[in-house]
Specification:
With 396 residues, the protein is of the alpha/beta class. It has two domains: 127 residues, Aspartate Aminotransferase, domain 1 (Alpha-Beta Complex), CATH 3.90.1150; 248 residues, 3-Layer(aba) Sandwich (Aspartate Aminotransferase, domain 2). The protein is 41% helix and 14% strand. The chain is built from 14 helices and twelve strands. The strands form three sheets. Strands 2-8-7-6-5-3-4 form a seven-stranded mixed sheet, with helices on both faces. The chain has a three-stranded antiparallel sheet with strand order 9-12-11. Strands 1-10 form a two-stranded parallel ribbon. Helix 3 packs antiparallel against helix 4, helix 5 packs parallel to helix 6 and helix 12 packs parallel to helix 14. The longest helix has 24 residues. The structure holds pyridoxal-5'-phosphate (PLP). Pyridoxal-5'-phosphate (PLP) binds next to helix 5 and helix 6.
Length: 396
């Protein structure tokens, strides 16, 4: 794969081998132009934009997003990022001392911190259920996860695609089982929209958050919170503003609470229709399939080079457009800096608890040559420095 046409449509610096789409995405030119068009309109007549037309603009954008993710437009609100959505829920949820939130030990750090903070405040317990790596199968994962269940569990909180370990998790089965046990389900799908198919109509998640500024290609600061109607009443506004006790309430308290957040530039939220049009015009399911193939084809040789094992089976069940490799290094931050400064490779080297992972992401602008460059950089670093330690072949 080397889609030169698509490559030329991104704004990324050509001299950088960009293997870190997973952190903040990257926005293609037509979508970025749409963003600037909205910003210009805002500054040309701020009052009309923010106070008069904004509600209708946001509605149109939510309708497009709803059609894309299989949800009613009024069950979605835009938020700047997924951890904002997690904060809305964790702060609002009526946690009693002893209540438990069941998660895994693979969740994203900022969300872990949020749950820890609010659980600690209320005397509840945030359960980071340990998942043994490598994961053997979807069923093995599900069994381990529900070993963390107790009669105190109130909610299941789980990533759809994990951050540092880059794995697709079996959230369909997990939500199904959790619902059969009467639990509320909250899925952190920061990496999902635009990456793997998402249908909130069939997934039994009561609450879901996703980022549009990652794999859906919008500019930064565009994410959403979805709540099934019957749970919307639990969510307090994170910022209390005019939508609380509104003088002009709309048909939805959920929208009033979370959409009216004082003066702000919501242009990024309005680019969702342009981003969806870009994905459709460029046959994104096919682009994503090619990227996934490239990710998976390369996985074994990276594991071999670093003398490690994959964290899960290298199949579509677990691996999309990211692959995370356990790496032994005492200096992850310095290694990441070295890769960027000397080799011009943008790739994250991330700590997670006591371990470190190197994660490559592949999108439309990447090619085999990018992964070959990463491979030779790692070979060179292994041969000339002591940044990376090689474990025994069976040690993970
Ligand atoms: C699994 C997961 N959840 C949530 C987020 C949200 O990140 P933030 O709110 O810090 O932008 C990320 C970002 O990478 C993520 O990987």
């Amino acid at each position: 794969m080397q889609n030169k046409t698509l490559q030329s449509r991104f704004l990324l610096r050509p001299e950088i081998t960009f293997l870190n789409f997973g952190s903040f995405g990257a926005c293609p030119k037509p979508v970025f132009q749409d963003y600037q068009r909205w910003q210009l309109e805002l500054e040309q007549e701020p009052v009309q934009f923010i106070a008069v037309n904004g509600i209708q603009y946001l509605k149109q954008s939510r309708e497009a997003l709803g059609a894309y993710v299989g949800a009613a437009a009024d069950d979605l609100v835009y938020v700047p990022n997924p951890s904002y959505a997690v904060n809305i829920i964790a702060k609002s949820f009526d946690l009693k001392p002893g209540d438990e939130i069941l998660a895994t030990n693979l969740e994203y750090g900022a969300c872990d911190k949020t749950w820890n903070y609010y659980c600690k405040k209320s005397g509840a317990v945030y359960v980071r259920q340990p998942i043994e790596l490598p994961v053997k199968s979807r069923q093995a994962f599900i069994d381990q996860f529900f070993n963390g269940l107790s009669d105190k569990t109130r909610m299941v909180f789980i990533s759809h695609i994990t951050s540092t370990t880059g794995m697709i998790l079996p959230v369909e089965e997990i939500c199904e089982i959790a619902k059969s046990k009467g639990l509320i389900t909250f899925v952190d799908g920061a990496h999902t929209p635009g990456h793997i198919p998402l249908d909130l109509g069939t997934l039994k998640a009561d609450i879901y958050t996703g980022a549009c500024h990652k794999w859906m290609l919008t500019p930064k600061g565009c994410s959403f919170l979805y709540m099934r109607k019957e749970y919307q009443y639990i969510a307090d506004p994170l910022v209390v503003s005019w939508g609380y006790d509104s003088a002009f309430p709309s048909h939805s308290r959920f929208l009033d609470y979370h959409q009216m957040q004082g003066t702000r530039d919501f242009s990024a939220f309005l680019t969702v229709p342009a981003a969806i049009a870009f994905l459709e015009e460029n046959n994104w399911p096919e682009v994503a399939r090619e990227c996934r193939n490239l990710v998976q084809r390369n996985a074994p040789r990276f594991c071999e080079l670093l003398k490690t094992q994959p964290l899960c089976p290298i199949t579509d069940d677990f691996i999309g457009q990211m692959f995370s490799i356990p790496i032994q290094t005492e200096q992850p931050e310095a290694l990441q800096r070295l890769l960027f400064e000397v080799y011009k490779i943008e790739i994250p080297v991330m700590r997670h608890d006591a371990r470190v992972f190197l994660r490559y992401s592949i999108n439309a602008f990447n090619s085999q040559a990018d992964l070959d460059r990463l491979y030779s950089a790692l070979e060179n670093i292994l041969a000339t420095t002591d940044f990376i330690r090689l474990p025994g072949a069976t040690e993970l």
